[in-house]
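Cross-check.
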Amino acid sequence: MTGLLLPVLSRAARILVCGFSLILALPVAAGLIETVPHIKESVVAVGTYQQTRSPPFRFLGTGFAVGNGRLIATNAHVIPDVVSEDQFEMLVVVLPGDEQTRGVRRVTRVAVDPERDLAVLRLDAGNSLPPLTLSGNGGAQEGQSIAFTGFPIGNALGMTPVTHRGIISALTPIGIPQGNARDLNPALVRRLAGGAFRVYQLDATAYPGNSGSPVFDPDSGEVLGVVNMVFVKTTKENILSSPSGISYAIPVKYLANLIEGLN
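Predicted model, tokenized:
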């Protein structure tokens, strides 16, 4: 009799454990489900607008509202060096919303940190956006769960914000000294000379267009970093003949320093 009961009890125990594990997993999923709609209210597409061009809007990357809600954080490389104002071209952002409510707002560049590839824009007019909260706990830790929202391949897939999830897989140097001089490039030399710093390596795939996306805590929505696709790879992966596919982010403390005093 005892021999017959053991398999039954064992199976029941397995079911109980599986059910308990599922219960433990639910709050994590529910946290992201509740957080994403709030994040999307603050995420914008960054680009230029020229009415005589087809299409008028040229998508360049992702940004998100910070500070007083009139400031937009993004990567410096997302912002074009020249905007042809004499040809009525404008630097703009596409506001959150569906195709019926989505609008285009002109922005002005107000701060740039070229050493960390960060930039801040200001909405020229109209209402502010809900600003995202920047994490003030000193940075993310390895193994920490993260998510980021942006416009992967926005030119092809459209202005629908997309969320990806992963973890912080490593805190890694922005540039690594090379043993051979031929492996050095100007960007890496400048980075090492200006003071190397650590970036987040992400166990999540970011795509062209995700540059400037907020990396956030799935439960609290606090911003931990800013996705960077171009700047990091030119130094971190300078000896590779083709990109690795690894995604990186700039820690949010550098953005906090950049927006300090802006309004």
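The first strand starts at residue 43 and ends at 49. Confidence is low (pLDDT under 50) at residues 1-9, 12-28. Passed to J.P. for a second look.
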